[in-house]
Specification:
By secondary structure, this protein is an alpha/beta fold. The chain is 38% helix and 15% strand. Helix 6 packs parallel to helix 7 and helix 7 crosses helix 8.
Length: 337
């Protein structure tokens, strides 16, 4: 199955619908399957006195999360316009909901075909209950979570109506950017084994190599933040890919998909052509007479592989030549009996 690539625009539009459209353009040019935003109401998402995370303070200065997020909101009408724009650009629109009203709008009015549960919402009773009732294909990031917490949320979702077959768990580290020593990519395999579900990777590292590695390890979905310019003001631009890096990410993932192939070990069509050139055949290294008995010292193995396989040599030794042989002749079955 083709790996789904989600180009995470998030709030990198900085509250501007025109910037959001440019992000859609970049994601579509790169060949991503989805471009994803974040739909929220700042009043419902965060208390007005909640401080920013350290990386947010570093990128946007001190202040409250509320003030920052309020400036990053888009209206429902703007999301509808962005969805229509995505249709024109032949890329799927997606957005992460952070409250029940936003989720209901995205499902009923926008018609999203995939629900994303971000790492911070893995304990949100109200949102999880609504997600389970919709029972759409659902992707859940697992940053900041233990296996026990993931299991509790997974069981909660299933108990409230989400079919397990509709769930994909994403290995994720909630750090922007994520240090390489904290990626713990093998945990993705643990999620697959313990919960018997499809898995993927939500990438907050710098660069593209970890996303590409996750595909080689079996990820069926990869999510990666991107921006138009890493120097733009805002909380997530610094830990995002630029447009050219996004192109490289999509291309690399598609190449890895092709390279993974199947579990069958077989000779490929190209190898068939090269096999005759690269393999070796038996050749005579002496002038020989009719009636001579063939011994090991009369042979060598050289390219091309158009003659007798050298591994058949033991079945030839001790046989008698039926004709004279010149040094350098290719060995043929008709030479001896």
């Amino acid at each position: 199955m083709k790996v789904k690539i989600i180009a995470e625009a998030g709030v990198n539009h900085n509250g501007s619908i025109e910037t959001a459209k440019k992000l859609i353009d970049a994601a579509a040019r790169a060949g991503a399957d989805y471009v994803k935003f974040q739909t929220f109401n700042a009043e419902k998402l965060v208390d007005k006195f909640t401080r920013k995370a350290k990386y947010q303070e570093k990128n946007t200065g001190k202040g409250s999360q509320y003030e920052m997020l309020k400036n990053l909101e888009l209206t429902n009408q703007e999301y509808l316009e962005l969805c229509r724009y995505c249709n024109l650009k032949n890329i799927k629109f997606l957005s992460t909901a952070f409250d029940v009203d936003s989720l209901t709008f995205l499902v009923n009015d926008i018609g999203i075909d995939l629900i994303k549960i971000p790492s911070g919402e893995i304990t949100n009773y109200f949102l999880l209950t609504k997600i389970a009732l919709f029972n759409l294909p659902t992707v859940m990031s697992t940053g900041m979570s233990t296996l026990a917490e993931i299991e509790r949320t997974l069981n909660f979702l299933i108990r409230n109506g989400l079919e397990k077959k509709n769930l994909i768990l994403l290995q994720c580290t909630t750090a922007y950017p994520t240090p390489m020593e904290e990626v713990n990519l093998r945990a993705m395999l643990t999620l697959a084994k313990k919960f018997d579900v499809s898995v993927g990777y939500s990438d907050h590292t710098n660069g593209i190599e970890v996303s590409v590695a996750s595909v080689a390890m079996g990820a069926c979905l990869v999510e990666k933040h991107f921006t138009l310019d890493n120097n733009m003001e805002g909380p997530d631009h610094k830990a995002s890919l630029n447009p050219s890096e996004l192109v490289q990410l999509v291309s690399s993932i598609r190449n890895v998909e092709l390279a993974l192939g199947s579990t069958e070990k077989k000779i490929t069509p190209t190898e068939k052509e090269n096999q005759l050139i690269a393999r070796k055949s038996l050749f005579y290294i002496s002038n020989l007479k009719k009636g001579d008995e063939l011994i090991l010292d009369y042979f060598e193995a050289k390219r091309p592989g158009t003659g007798i396989n050298p591994l058949e040599l033991e079945s030839i030794l001790g046989k008698t030549l039926l004709k004279d042989i010149s040094k350098g002749d290719l060995v043929n079955n008709s030479d001896y009996a």
